[in-house]
Amino acid sequence: MFASKxxxxxxxxxxxxxxxxxxxxxxxxxxxxxxxxRVMDDNPLYSGQTYRLKFTFTQSYPIExxxxxFVRDESHPIPMHPHIYSNGIICLDLLDRTGWSPVHNxxxxxxxxxxxxxxxxxxxxxxxxxxxxxxxxxxxxxxxxVFHDNSx
Amino acid sequence: xxxxxxxxxxxxxxxxxxxxxxGDYEQAEALxxxxxxxxxxxxxxxxxRANARLKLEKWEGVINDCLASIELMTENMKAYFYLAQAQIxxxxxxxxxxxxxxxxxxxxxxxxxTSNAATISALVTRCKKAKWDIRERERVRRRQGLLAELExxxxxxxxxxxxxxxxxxxSGEIGRVEATEEKQERKTEFEQKRDDVRTAFAISDPxxxxxxxxxxxxxxxxxxxxxxxxxxxxxxxSYERATIIEHLKRSATDPLTxxxxxxNDLRPNIALKEACAEFMxxxxxxxxxxxxxxxxxxxxxxxxxxxxxxxxxx
Lengths: 152, 314
Prior knowledge:
The complex is a heterodimer. By secondary structure, chain A is of the alpha+beta class. Chain A is about 20% helix and about 15% strand. Chain A contains 3 helices and 4 strands; from the N terminus they run H-E-E-E-E-H-H. Chain A has a 4-stranded antiparallel beta sheet. In chain B, helix 8 runs antiparallel to helix 9. Chain B is built from 13 helices and 3 strands, in the order H-H-H-H-H-H-H-H-H-E-E-H-E-H-H-H. The longest helix of chain B is centred in the middle third of the chain and has 28 residues, at about 115-145. Chain B has a 3-stranded antiparallel beta sheet with strand order 2-1-3. Chains A and B meet through helix 1 of A and helix 10 of B. Chain B: It catalyses: S-ubiquitinyl-[E2 ubiquitin-conjugating enzyme]-L-cysteine + [acceptor protein]-L-lysine = [E2 ubiquitin-conjugating enzyme]-L-cysteine + N(6)-ubiquitinyl-[acceptor protein]-L-lysine. Chain B: Its EC number is 2.3.2.27, 5.2.1.8. Chain B: One of its GO terms (molecular function) is protein-folding chaperone binding.
């Protein structure tokens, strides 16, 4: 109900100005957007890489959280992080049904993910990554993650 | 009323509802009419028929049904809601606005606080915009004789085209779907021509191209639109009532602090409401010109800055 109005406004702002390391790649409709993020400091885990995020919106955005995943192609790997599965699914409380708030927006989600990468030092995947990636058939928003730790 | 009529009316209403759901509005209207003959004391029969007539664009019928329904039941959100839509369709924005506001009041004061608030709030905005449009047209007419004349002749032609289509529909020459499509086509054509004329005039009048912005403190942090009915939360932030309620229905927390927050904790922010109203009044209609989500330009020149409408249609 709100989605297209609100997204059209976000788009105007995004086209105007974005924080360093965040770029708008594609927003041809109000269903799916692509954003690129880079980590701005010299964290060896992520230096020189650009990561691509796919946002999928429902009609109820921003009351309902967008679905946000990393996508992989030749030039965009999935970043290594203990909360990011190797298929691009992200375990972050603010993207979760209960952690989301409608005052968040595409830009603030990108900034949160950027800082989640910046502050990470562990070169590892979440526990059970292989099994999860092999068996998961659910949409990210329907998965209820158990947050193993909130320190990262 | 003979015994059994009430029951018969109820049966007819249910049949009408089934047809309505299937999109057969003519049949639904006929059944509701039969129901009303059996029982003319049930306000819901009138609002149901009004809704069917809305779909059929029988505006006068909608208005009569709504008034009849309101007479039987004064606290009648649906009747005011349909009434406003019919009034706006027949170009009576003042009456439409007061009906829409009445519907909105009844809605937010009802115990359910349903999601209707958002829909009705959008209707209120549409009525305000229609009202502003009329005033603005007058103003433009006074100031710019030539542009006004050109616009008026375009509009006359457009209205004539629409009347022709109506006549052909009436005579059975074309079907309803075809008529609606043709009307839409004529409308697009008319708006395009009008925009072109306005563009030409706007270019020769650069003062009017100035870009204005709504200050952030008048903007709802959820929809990013100027607020009509702001309410304040426990931490002092204000949101548009209809949208914060949508959020609270899913998650009873403050959007910023995540602390528990319920609908009953919300208080109207009257000073901010007045500030929003004053801003809209001063800046006239350009803030209203946002059926497609834009709030950043004068409606007369809006087409210069918003190629974004294309997104809506995809």
